[in-house]
Amino acid sequence: MTMAHQTAEMAANQTQKASAIDSFIARERARERRTHINNRLLATGFGLFVLAVWHISTETGLVHALIIPSPIDTLMATGRVMSASYFWPNVFVTLSEIMWGFAFGLSSGVLLGVSVAMFAVVRATIYPYLVALQAPPKIVLAPIFITWFGFDQPSKIAISAVMSFFPMFLNTLTGLASVDPNAVKLMRSLTAGRWQTFRYLLLPNALPIMMAGVKLCWTLAVLGVIVGEFVGASAGIGYLIYAMNFQLDIAGVFSLIILLSLFTVVVYQLIEWLESRIVFWQQL
Amino acid sequence: MDTELIDGRELSKVYATATGPLIALDDVSFTIEEGQFISLVGPSGCGKSTLLSILGGLEDRSEGDLVIAGKRLEAPRADIGMMFQTSVLFPWRTVRENVLLPGVVLKLDRKAQSERCDELLDMVGLNGFGDRYPKELSGGMRQRVALARLLAHDPRVLLMDEPFGALDEFTRETMNLELLSIWEKTGKTVIFVTHNIGEAVFLSDRIFVMTPRPGRLEGIVEVDIPRPRKADVMRTPRYSELVFDIRGMLGVDH
């Protein structure tokens, strides 16, 4: 065999190998895609199945329309409710309650969490009480808050803030505490002060756990407002749900529940998107 | 040479534990000259990490006196740098931002720090990796970044707590060689904790051999192998002899 011949053969071998690897990778990719599509199909199929069961059981009278309205009735009710004159004013009442409750719960949770984590005196003074208060269900406060703050928005905001405060507080505290001891040593060896350590190490280090707290805080802020409106209100989505339920307009109730869920999920997704921006290094 | 940089006298450390006082470090005295490479060697619990923490001003000594660069050590100081077994890089900061951290904390001149950062990344062989995040690097590369960060604010004393202990054997040897060449270039005083006797002999001018319960300085071994040292040092009889001497002091060969 000549030298040129050998080289040519080696090159051919190499091309063969490369194409074998390429086709292997292509096959793996295709399999991943198939799995992905299959999963999507399964989820969609299950959703459609539930919808079909719902439709058939209500349309055939197996379940009375007063107990569960049919999907079509629910859809019609959604249109009816959304075009009613009372809808948007009530939506705005609830929305502003949620936003204020969320804002108060979030900010007080972060502030107290940071204070307890950073100041030994604050920790010794109030931490035991905050932990004790965290145990009972906060819903028990709803009737008292209505007595204290009245039927209008302030009572709902208060309930919402109290309910959403705890996850934010605890997650801030946990986040600030769960730091690599060597990282703290490093900051100390660089003669960093308390707030330098906070700014450059503790706070960014706490952000992933704090963002998980924000998501919990959000769902509880919504829950707090709706609970408050159930217990006593003259306006709002919770009030509408309560009133419609009383009038046996179950389709209306269903439509409101669906709209409220949609809104909560959309904001939740928004928070998740923000999270992926803020704690970008988690996804690297 | 009488350019004495570190003077430790009768250093002791006692911890109060539930079962009574625990002596972590018992009456340790030594001096270290500027520019020396010192290793602290011994089994777990011999007080080598405690001694390093005391040298860094991170832990109080129970007794004894410690003077570094003419001043009594009472608290952490910017002229003493620390490096750990894990890289302790901040994952939200790029490689560059991590190396710039000491300068930011110490409020050093930004431009000068930025230039120094380039030089240091070059020195540790990470030119072009400045904008990567720590998660995108291998364990060895992360320790290189940590080494660059250690040198960023130009401390006189480098305290290294098993810095390559978590790396695989091959990477560790490469890192040791590079550490030696960096040390030769910068002339820093290094105190290097390890439980790898061979590593200590290869790197050091002097080895502090420590024994546990309580943590004592058993003896100081002078390593008279000429520099600059290359990997083939490990094949010389003198190297083996020193390794076995130290093993003897530690009672490993009984």
Low-confidence stretches of chain B: none
User: Could you state the order of secondary-structure elements of chain A as H and E?
Assistant: HHHHHHHHHH
Q: Give the DSSP E fraction of chain B (strand runs of 2 or more residues).
A: 25-35%
Characterize the biggest β-sheet of chain B: 6 strands, mixed
Residue share in helix of chain B: 25-40%
**Into which percent range does the helicity of residues of chain A fall?**
over 70%
- The ordered string of helix (H) and strand (E) elements of chain B is EEEHEEEHHHEHEHEEH
Features:
heterodimer; A: 284 residues; mainly alpha; B: 254 residues; alpha/beta; four-stranded antiparallel beta sheet; 7 helices
Strand and helix layout:
The complex is a heterodimer of chains A (284) and B (254).
Chain A: H1 3-59, H2 71-83, H3 87-118, H4 120-134, H5 141-149, H6 153-177, H7 181-189, H8 194-231, H9 237-246, H10 250-278
Chain B: E1 4-17, E2 20-33, E3 37-41, H1 48-55, E4 63-68, E5 71-72, E6 80-83, H2 95-105, H3 110-123, H4 139-152, E7 157-161, H5 169-186, E8 189-194, H6 197-203, E9 206-211, E10 216-222, H7 237-250
Parallel strand pairs in B: 3-8, 3-9, 6-7, 7-8
Antiparallel strand pairs in B: 1-2, 1-4, 4-5, 9-10
Helix pairs in contact in B: 2-3, 2-4, 3-4, 6-7
Task: Tell me what the structure shows.
Chain A is mostly helical and 284 residues long. In chain A, 83% of the residues lie in helices and 0% in strands. The longest helix of chain A has 57 residues. Chain A is flat and about 100 Å long. Chain B is an alpha/beta fold and 254 residues long. Chain B contains seven helices and ten strands. Chain B has a six-stranded mixed β-sheet, with helices on both faces. Chain B has a four-stranded antiparallel β-sheet with strand order 2-1-4-5, with helices on one face. In chain B, helix 2 crosses helix 3 and helix 3 packs antiparallel against helix 4. Chain B is globular. The chains are: A mainly alpha (284), B alpha/beta (254). The interface between A and B is medium-sized, with 21 and 28 residues.
